[in-house]
Amino acid sequence: MPASAPFPELELLGMRIAVLDTHALLDHLFAELRDGRGGWVVTANLDILRRAVLDSDARALYGNADLICADGMPLVWASQILGEPLPERVAGSTMTAELAEWAAREGRTMYFLGGDPGAAEGCRAELERRHPGLRVLGTSSPWVSKPATVEEVDAIAEEIGEDVPDILLVGLGSPKQEYLIQKLRVRYPKTWMMGVGISFGFIAGQVKRAPEWMQRTGTEWVHRMVQDPKRLVRRYLVDDLPFAALLFADAARRRMRR
Fold first, then answer.
1. Distance between CA atoms of residues 252 and 200, nearest Å
2. In what order do the strands lie in the sheet with 39-44?
3. What is the pLDDT, as a whole number, of residue 132?
4. Most buried by CB count within 10 Å: which residue of 16, 115, 118, 121?
5. What are 105-160's pLDDT values in tens digits?
6. Could you count the other beta carbons within 10 Å of the beta carbon of residue 16?
7. Other CB atoms closer than 10 Å to residue 53's CB: what's the count?
């Protein structure tokens, strides 16, 4: 994290989370763009926090971001237990659509990188339909190693070309997308970058997002697990649920010690 963070922060199991809502984040990003500065946002869910706690390389990777926001209701609940409540969940999937709306209004450009075949293109078509005047400079869905090789980064930079976007969204899943962003931000210091996971698929209509009531109540993970049980049952039930209990217990213990 930067030496002087632009927002107050709270700590959850060693990860510094910015205390802000979606509007404050958008306002900050576009103000930075107007001043010619780029940056990197990580929207951390429970799985990202667990990875940061257990893996020192992942912890260092996420810690290089300019802002870490809470994209996961368990993190919001933990902040409430701690007595330092976050204002809301800042969901990367929601942010993707919000960024497009703001970019169209302010004349900023975007680029969509990653996603399943056709997802980035479908996302572009849908967002351009919603926001006439939105300029998405391009999309690509390359295969990328974890971490990306120099050759892969060179190929991506060549694909992006000389017309550098103001906002670059990367949908490769974590931590692959963050490893790539870490290398791309050196090449594009005036671009804001964010990993968005499966968001392109949601907006393109390839994957159905959970109903809003599930998003609000923190049960969106159940919907995702039913959609993709082979990949997500173990992650959510074996890895994340016990870790959530650890997170809540730590928050309660810290509050009682005050």
1. 36
2. 67-70, 39-44, 192-195, 167-171, 109-114, 135-140
3. 93
4. 115
5. 999 999 999 999 999 999 999 999 999 999 999 999 999 998 999 999 999 999 99
6. 16
7. 17
Specify the number of domains making up the chain.
Answer: 1
Q: Which domain holds residue 65?
A: 9-204
Report d(CA 44, CA 70) in Å as an integer: 5
Assess if residue 101 is contained within a domain.
yes
Nearest to 177 by CA among 66, 70, 40: 40
156: CB partners within 8 A, 6+ apart: 113, 140, 142, 144, 148, 180, 184
How do beta strands 15-18 and 9-12 pair?
antiparallel
Residue 127 belongs to a domain with what CATH number? 3.40.50.2300
Query: What's the rounded Cα separation, in Å, for the pair 38 and 48?
Result: 23
Residue 214 in any domain: the answer is no
| 199: amino acid identity, one letter | S
Cα–Cα distances in angstroms (integers) from residue 24 to residues 29, 107, 131, 168, in the given order:
9, 19, 21, 19
Cβ pair 78, 251 in contact under 8 A? yes
Model confidence at 4, pLDDT cuts 50, 70, 90, reads low
What tokens were used for 152?
A: 């892969």
Tell me, yes or no, whether 222 lies in a domain.
Answer: no
Kind plus residue range of the DSSP H or E element containing 156: helix 150-160
Cβ neighbours for 249, distance < 8 A, ≥ 6 positions apart: none
